[in-house]
Design brief:
- With 504 residues, this protein is an all-alpha fold.
- It has 3 domains: 6-181, no CATH class; 185-266 and 412-504, no CATH class; 269-385, no CATH class.
- It has helices at 6-25, 32-48, 50-70, 75-110, 125-138, 148-156, 169-176, 185-217, 226-257, 275-278, 284-303, 311-333, 337-362, 374-396, 400-410, 424-442, 446-454, 463-473, 477-491.
- The protein is globular and about 70 Å long.
Amino acid sequence: MLFFSKEFIFIFFPFVLIAYFITIKFLKNFNFYKTLLIFASIVFYGIWSLKFLIFFMVLIIFNHTSINYFQKFNKEKRALLSIALILLNIFILIYYKYYNFLIININQVFELSFNFKNIILPLGISFITFQQIGFIWTSIDRKNIVNLKDYLLFSIFFPQIIAGPILIIEDVDYQFKKNFPNMNLKNIWKGVQIFSLGLFKKVFIADKLSPWVDTIFSSDLSNFGSLDLFIGALTYGFQLYFDFSAYSDMAIGLGLIFGLSLPVNFLSPYKSQSISEFWTRWHITLNRFLESLIYFPLSLKIRRFFSENKVSSSIAVIFLSTIITFFISGLWHGAGWTFIMWGLYHGFFVSLQRTYSYIKAIYLINDNHNSNSKIIVIRNIFITNLVVFLSWIIFRSENLSFTINYYQTLFSFFDGSWTLFFNQAYIKKIILLFLLFLICFFVPNTYEIINYKFKDKSFSCSKIYKKIFSLVEKYYLDLLFMIILIAYYVRFSFENKPFIYYQF
């Protein structure tokens, strides 16, 4: 059940919201609201697959029971048992997501003939598993045990169970401990507007770009020239941007409607001035997970193998830790060599960035005398996005051979295709891509808009955006959100593609 489907909008969502409102406002049963949201989440996932719903419920309850049982042991034994439980969860993820990938490569390397299995990938397994692993790991040092009801809601809350954000218990625990959820008309309206902006991004932009992307990436590249592949790479970069941004907005909006604040997961990544900054803006909660549970512990482990207080040793630690972390990130995104190479690609550039920052700090190099210059900022953003957009080619390709062929054709600048740049067949696409470029780089993001509108100080807002907002306000911003919702259901069909991150 998709967030923009008829079943969700007209049946599931109104029913849950009404029941939730009655529970909070009239029954005054401030504990039952958790039960209601758990039940709604069970129904939400169960509509897709009852079998996998039961499987994940058993796994989640088993994890919670095990963690409670581990508390009677000392920290050393508790750590060993927790690691064993983590390995069990990882094994489940490997089986469902990577079994056939491993079999393919084992057969090729050792010339064997192990049989493949017809394995259906459970929806959201990567997100669910990482969230479970994160909780188990942090429970080693946690004295207070989260009760089962709170743990279930933390694990399967329907706005984020499929594609994030990846929660840590601290994101929601303080909210669970309140006597009543933060449900009021202001938050509901705020959530509706964030949701509607996400809906607009998904339906009006991302899904409309999908046919262009599929035409390029699902065809024989010999049929296209350099210009076609240039447009294809840009189009996919924007499709993925608006698709994932849309889901993040809709998840956070739904959370607010039901009184829960979910962490921001997407914050204008194409405005980044470095590849490191990009990863603080794109899939923020995944980056948080990888840094806290993999990068930092791994750095400490690796450092033991190198000499202390040597610059070369520190650089080696940075490179190895970063490359391994991004290798895991790539593998997390999909069972394929393209995802692994995509992860290593980003790991390499982030390593360079971190090494450069480290060397500047060590040798007291100051290159910030004109870092705020518009030319410098534009240059940095251009280089960063050049690196990012080229990486999306790897991410979208079916295999590495396709990737190589794509790059070869893309950089064949003198194949004659660029003479068609202003041809009528291309001009529509070029104009649209230019408009998307303006939206990504110059238009305020969802949270800047909501921040200004609701005077929320948790997000800053630049002066130029405030001027834009002052103009928009005159034309009734509230009305715009309702028009977005109404226009979709009146004019557009419900035949839209699932969110791209659903496959992970």
